[in-house]
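G., before I forget:
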Amino acid sequence: MRTARVASRLAPLAVAGIALAAAFGSTTQAQEGDPIKLGAIYITSGAASVYGQYAQQGLRLAIEEINESGGVLGRPLTYEIEDSQGKADTAIQAARKLVFQNEVDALVGLDSSGVATALVPIMPELQRPLIITHAATPAATGELCNRYTFRVSANVNQNMKAAAHIAADTGAKRWTTIGPDYAFGHESWEFFGKYLKELDPDVELMSKTAFPRFGNEDFTPYINNVMALKPDGVLISVWGGDLVNFVRQANNLGFFEQDMEILMTVGAATEVLAALGDDMPEGVWLGTRYWFDAHDNPINEKFVKAYMERHDAPPSYNAEGAYAAVYAYKAAMEKAESTDPEEVAKALSGLSFEAPNGTITFREGDHQATVGPTWGKTAAMDEATGVRSLDPMRSFDGKEVTPSVEETGCKMK
Amino acid sequence: MQSFIAALLNSLDIAMLLFVIAVGLNIIFGVLNVINFAHGGLYMLGAYFTYMLVGRLGLPFWPALLLAPLAVAAVAVVLERLVLRRVYDRHVTDSLLLTFALLLIIDESVRMIWGSGIHVVRPPDLLRGNVSFLGVNYPVYSLFVILMGAAMLLALWALFTRTRLGRIVRAAAIDRDMAQTVGINVPLVITGVFAFGAWMAAVGGVIAAPMRAIDPGMGDKIIIESFIVVVIGGLGSFPGTLLGALVLGFIHGFGGRYLPEINLVLPYIGMALVLLWRPQGLMGRGAAA
């Protein structure tokens, strides 16, 4: 009787003990079939939430493809997404939550340069690899670089070096700019001017420029100002909904009928082109980190086809960046034969892998992928996709437009 | 001279759009004593309904100008009856928090229904192209915005000063209890005023749809501008709203043209100066709460 009573008292304790031991076991060592977790940080609310939506589409597509063909190291991939709201402090909170609470193995994301400059310096503290897929500030793989941070997408440097080539070929001499009044607009103009001067010392970079507030809805005064300056060429780094507003107002004012060369640094974004339709004029040069129609390789063919089947629209550059980042992690984890963050970060450095925009290498010196943007001149409407086609079109080789590691100011720690 | 005229015309169409939106905000404050953050959301709903009717269903612009604001007014009636009504007796900060929550809910609902993409609506054929005005090329659509604003201004003035309905609303604004005692159905007036303010916001949304990108952040942007207008002009003042809208329109139109380096801070400098000089706004009667 007595022993039975003791046993009945001890039984629940034992069960609890076993449960506790099991719980410990699962956190200390990953089981064979446990998923590998990616943590994603994008803008998923507010005006720019379209970028988070596209990134998520790219992530999901890559993860499903990989899981269907056996996963990574025999384990399936999953992801959790947090909203950065485009704000630095929110993004840092999101990163902490993903790393310390959700215990993700690696991070991917970032839409805004402001977020990147705040988050990149604390990566050594979070001790997880981060692949940036959108934010373009050179600093992230320049003076702020560290061993955990990588970027798979083209940065402002690379895009502006390509833009300078396009600009030099037009023969236009007097250039000005219209760009958003924050780092991105000013950096774009600064690097464009620097590289254009190198290619053609005769060009004049006008001192009168226009930097309307980001989220400005009425560009008319700025458009009028620039038209009054009568430049030969205008670099426009306005983007997203602002660019849609800009183009429609510029149409009204006859801006595109002037004798000027127009370069829009992020104009070939499908969300902007789809919204504008034939309001986007012909004969304007548009740049983008990735153009679905520019790369003739089996991976791009597969990616574009699968994306179009799901979403009935061509993939935007942000979907491609996120898609490529997942494949980069797959390659790195297989190379390291581990998901250990230190090992994966080491494996990413100098890694080459196949992405829709070609073979991509994360340079050892600064962890920037040697990728080039695509630039194209707007031509006839493409009825199948509802956006303007680009013809002629030029995809830049990453080696051609990536500045040397010394130039970037990166001292890898 | 031409550049001056261009800046002037450009300021006017910004000002008139701001007036149409901000006056609704101010009327709601005057009668309900509620600072309605959700106003930006209602403006956005006006634009999205226009996109639905014109962009998706292929209706012409003009019926949309009639239907979209009515639909938004209906949404406003539901919001007022179900939610807003419960906080009138509380401190003004409670209604501030509540309407801010409503704005967030409208923002996310719009994103869930219409997605996060950018949309545009074409102006009607009649209003496309440019006219030449004193040597300046001016979009016909901007001219339409100015005329709409002026028409709304006259109609509102006549409504509030020349009609029985206007007098009832003003009575309810000045003293709710007294109005109730003399037999005015005050709760009905309050619902009506809220719906009317929402209708004005939505008219602004419909007018903005063919000239602005329609995306889920448009409501947040306009509510800040509208608050600046109301603060400059004076809370609760109808002529003040017109003045505030003109001041902000000129700040955008001329500031963008002649002082582009500091255009970012100009609206806030303007607002700060007015607050220092006349804390109740240029034509305000002083804070009621």
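Residues 2-32 of chain B form the longest helix (31 residues). The CA atoms of residues 131 and 137 of chain B lie 6 Å apart.

More on Monday.
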